[in-house]
Design a protein that fits this description.
12 strands; mainly beta; disordered N terminus
Length: about 160
């Protein structure tokens, strides 16, 4: 379990962070988000439910006085919900002026992927396709690279943004 928050550097994002992805797990799948969007990783904590939000928005947390909406990525991807464990964590991402927490099964590592290691996602006729920015190839493994903006934006995003203070 993450005993304390893992704070990402407050320094401006550098060229060295280009093409780096935070890899997280959901079930047996590996997913990545651009490290430049990640501010910190915290352990799961008490989440206060908020009425009238989409089912994947679990509620809000208070982090150092800031109110942050929290999304369960499993539910957002229409996977079966899972009980939170000591490996479950919340990845805090900043998208524009909003901070959002992403609940994931666990965090694996930070991976550098060069342009040649990333291919376009296959053309699929599913709503989930819009979340996938590309597919990272690492040896024989693949990591689905997620578009954070698409992950948190939908017809309900105005409600989500309204509670992100």
């Amino acid at each position: 379990m993450l005993d304390s928050a893992v704070q990402m550097s407050e320094e401006p994002k550098t060229e060295a962070q280009k093409d780096q992805y935070l890899i997280f797990t959901l079930d047996s799948g590996y997913y990545g988000i651009d490290i430049k969007n990640v501010t910190e990783i915290i352990g799961i904590q008490r989440i206060t439910p908020v009425p009238e939000l989409p089912d994947y928005v679990q509620g809000i947390i208070s982090l150092r006085g800031k109110i942050i909406p929290v999304i369960d990525v499993r539910i957002r991807f229409r996977m079966e919900p899972a009980e939170y464990t000591d490996r479950t964590c919340i990845i805090i991402v900043d998208i524009g002026s909003a901070s959002v927490g992403l609940i994931v099964d666990g965090v694996s590592d930070v991976l550098s992927l060069e342009e040649g290691d990333i291919v376009d996602a296959p053309n699929m006729d599913t709503a989930a396709r819009r979340f996938i920015r590309g597919i990272g190839r690492v040896g024989d493994e693949v990591k689905l690279l997620i578009d954070c903006i698409e992950l948190i934006n939908d017809e309900e995003s105005d409600k989500l943004n309204a509670i992100a203070v």
